[in-house]
Write a structure and sequence with these properties.
The chain is α/β, with parallel strands linked by helices. It has twelve helices and 13 strands. The structure holds iron/sulfur cluster.
């Protein structure tokens, strides 16, 4: 059986994995702490050559999976239908997970590793979860976590301590802030946290939030050092959007997503804004249309495979079949290259909950010469950007030793 890492990542998203009795997950890897990003839960694996994937373990559909994770004296391996297909690496548990902040909070209840970056959900629980009747997105699990599996109140001091610990131990380069809907106050709440993290660590910062009416807030985010923005439209079809995301449809509206994405692409530049879509809750051709639309305006289409997490409103809805998803992910990489959208620019950012455009490349069959040349151009841009970022971080971390003295904290 020929090993294809992109295809295996897709199949694991759609089918999950069973755990053999030989595995010792408690001692060998990161714990499965909580459902994440509203659309994840499961075990992080690193597939060769270096693809992070968060694999469903507990959802109903996993009962029928052909995949099995097992351990022997050489390490961890995956079998499909009884046949060994590849070795995998289990990322070790970050040491900071068991440490406490100065205020006595367990660090893993403040922020967690997702792939190779630190994810923080700072704000109070999304208001859609508190409305009567509930207006939360029907696939979402955020309301099942905040205040239960993670701290409800996270001070700037707590957050800074966790970011510094993750930078030191896990060598993170990127911190991702995520919020739910708070009637337009989301970014105002995040701003002091972003300022503090940027000023004290120099790391790349991403913000994922609902769109705001006041577009000038994005200018402020850029000014304080935000590097990346993402907007979760989730469904491209208007009717489906209303049905699956009733709160977003009623209180925000699809139009605002398009406005904010357009505005931010112009402000931040191509490749620095992501438009997130869930594949598997609407026909694949709609997802392909979304990819084409966002690619054309210079946003990075980010596609999550729908996962019916336990406890959510859609827990009984089956995930999509890998075969149905192939045209979607093939389109993803082609669109980014054809529109010269820079992808995979930042060093050491691996995402485990989505198939990144550069990972979707494994699913393509043929490349023509034009495509090859566009890829080569992208590789040069990537090299320069990574060099620049590494230099910036080196400068930041060694400011006190450099001759041109700058005020530091
Ligand atoms: S906006 Fe939707 S997906 Fe985001 S936290 Fe709220 S309910 Fe969940």
């Amino acid at each position: 059986m020929k090993y294809n890492p992109g295809l295996l990542k897709l199949e694991l998203f759609c089918q999950g994995i069973k755990i053999d009795g030989s595995c010792d997950l408690e001692n060998d890897t990161r714990p499965v702490l909580r459902t994440r990003g509203g659309l994840g839960s499961g075990l992080d694996l690193i597939l060769p050559p270096d693809l992070y994937v968060n694999v469903p373990l507990e959802e109903r559909f996993v009962k029928k999976t052909p995949f099995l994770l097992f351990k022997n004296r050489y390490g961890y391996f995956i079998k499909k239908n009884g046949q060994r297909i590849t070795e995998v690496i289990l990322p070790p548990k970050p040491r900071f997970y068991d440490k406490k902040t100065s205020s006595g909070k367990l660090m893993s209840r403040i922020g967690i590793m997702q792939g190779t970056y630190l994810a923080l959900y700072i704000t109070q629980v999304c208001r859609f979860w508190q409305m009567q009747p509930r207006a939360n997105c029907r696939f979402c699990s955020v309301g099942l976590n905040v205040g239960k599996n993670e701290e409800l109140e996270k001070s700037i001091g707590d957050v800074l301590e966790v970011v510094k610990a993750a930078k030191k131990e896990e060598k993170i380069t990127f911190v991702h802030f995520n919020t739910g809907f708070l009637f337009g106050k989301e970014l105002d709440i995040l701003i002091p946290y972003i300022k503090a993290v940027k000023e004290k660590t120099g790391l790349l910062i991403g913000v994922q939030s609902t769109p705001t009416d006041n577009l000038s807030k994005y200018d402020l985010l850029k000014k304080i050092g935000v590097d990346h923005l993402s907007f979760c439209l989730e469904l491209f079809d208007e009717k489906k959007f209303k049905q699956i995301c009733p709160g977003k449809s009623k209180y925000i509206g699809r139009k605002k997503y398009f406005e904010a994405i357009n505005y931010c692409v112009k402000l931040f530049g191509k490749g620095k804004v992501a438009a997130e879509i869930i594949a598997g809750l609407e026909p694949p051709q709609n997802t392909v249309r979304a990819i084409e639309h966002f690619g054309k305006i210079g946003a990075v289409p980010t596609v999550c495979v729908f996962r019916p997490c336990l406890g959510t409103d859609l827990e009984k809805t089956p995930p999509p079949k890998p075969k149905e998803m192939l045209p979607v992910f093939r389109k993803l990489y082609q669109t980014c290259i054809n529109n010269s959208i820079p992808v995979n620019m930042a060093p050491n950012i691996k995402v485990d909950l989505v198939i990144l455009p550069e990972e979707a490349k494994y699913l393509l069959k043929n490349h023509d010469v034009k495509f090859f040349l566009l890829e080569a151009k992208m590789a040069i841009v990537r090299f320069l950007f990574r060099f620049y970022f590494r230099f910036r971080l080196f400068w930041f971390d060694n400011r006190s030793f450099l001759p041109f003295n700058r005020k530091i904290d």
